[in-house]
Amino acid sequence: MTLVVRFLSICILIFSCSSNNTTLHSIYGNTQGTFYSVQYFSNQKIILKSDLDSLLLDLDLSLSLYIDSSSISRINNNATNKVDNYLKKVITRSLKICNETNGSFDITVAPIVNAYGFGPKKNSFKIDSSYFSEYIGCDKIFLENDLIQKEESIQLDVNGIAQGFSVDVLSKFLKENGIVDFIINIGGEIFCSGDKKGKPWLVAIEQPLKNIQSQKYILKLSNTALATSGSYRKTKELENKVISHTINPKTFKPIENQLLSVSIMSENCMDADAYATACMSMGLEKSKNFVKKQGIEACFIYKDRNDTLTYMTSGLLSLVSSDSPDFLDLQSSLGDAPQ
Q1: pTM
Q2: What are 79-109's pLDDT values in tens digits?
Q3: In angstroms, what CA-CA distances link 225 with 5, 35, 47, 183, 254?
Q4: For residues 84 and 219, is the Cβ–Cβ distance under 8 A?
Q5: Mind spelling out the 3-state secondary structure of the chain?
Q6: Between 112 and 160, the higher pLDDT residue
Q7: Band of the pLDDT at 12, cuts 50, 70, 90?
């Protein structure tokens, strides 16, 4: 098995197009417990599936909690304190985002994830807030050169950022091979580069429904990343209560708030992924204040009593296609974007 991932909360809409000069190439596969797809325009088939699979395997061997010999597993098991290049980048950025979000994004949540049965070591820890308080906190880990300093009991879980980072690694690989017009999707985390023969790539934010994939908003994107975190699919029942896989590092419990999904647009997918996770933890009002302060473009789909509503920042709203199934729902909020 590989990385635990959030269930798909974004889908890609790729429409066929033809050209005498450029061909659309498509590659599909499985990775990190989910799917991936890469579509790119080129006169030649430059990128092979084996190239991408090799890169994704290297990422798993660095970041997957489901591989005992991975870099992160060996660090969690205190077999080493040396981090490889991929994990170093992920930890470094994670610590910065942890500080930016006042601890709402925290990669030391592994003990809580396991305790609630969402990790590789299911129920190996007791569910006790007083216990967790000793071991949770990004201030408890330090990086110096290629070495990590932490107590033996501190364990890391980078699943809230790893998929987005993986998208960025594939994106860098395509660009290094001269590919400029492409779209990458790993389990719903997306990066769009260039365009689709003169038109933006079309990406859909889904309806927050548990067992149905249905488009809600269609976005016209180019040279940007979009990542979504949601509470409506990966759930389980505990003591007659449905709980989400997303953990609030402040309460040491699965999140309980109005938010059903958070979609974040960013120049890179790693940041979009982490910020979406953080906002799910913060809840609606704190997240609205956070993205406004940080200048982040976001879409929050949330519940208000029996209604499902949307709050979308103006920059993201400007990219919504009028062909969106729920486009009319947004009309009254153009400019301000609360709905």
Answers
A1: 0.87
A2: 999 999 999 999 999 999 999 999 999 999 9
A3: 18, 17, 21, 10, 27
A4: no
A5: CCCCCCCCCEEEECCCCCCCCCEEEEEEEEECCEEEEEEEEECCCCCCHHHHHHHHHHHHHHHCCCCCCCHHHHHHCCCCCECCHHHHHHHHHHHHHHHHCCCCCCCCCHHHHHHCCCCCCCCCCCCCHHHHCCCCCHHHCEEECCEEECCCCCCCCCCCCHHHHHHHHHHHHHHHCCCCCEEEEECCEEEEECCCCCCCEEEEEECCCCCCCCEEEEEEECCEEEEEEECCCCEEEECCEEEECCEECCCCEECCCCEEEEEEEECCHHHHHHHHHHHHHHCHHHHHHHHHHHCCEEEEEEEECCEEEEEECHHHHCCECCCCCCHHHHHHHCCCCEC
A6: 160
A7: very low
Residue with tokens 């989400």, as numbered in its chain: 244
What is the average pLDDT across 287-300?
96
The model's pLDDT over 261-273, given as tens digits with 9 standing for 90+, comes to 999 999 999 999 9
| φ, ψ at 7 (rounded to 5°) | -70, 155
95, 145, 150, 166, 230 from 82: Cα distances, Å: 17, 9, 12, 20, 33
What is residue 14's predicted lDDT score, i.e. its pLDDT? 45
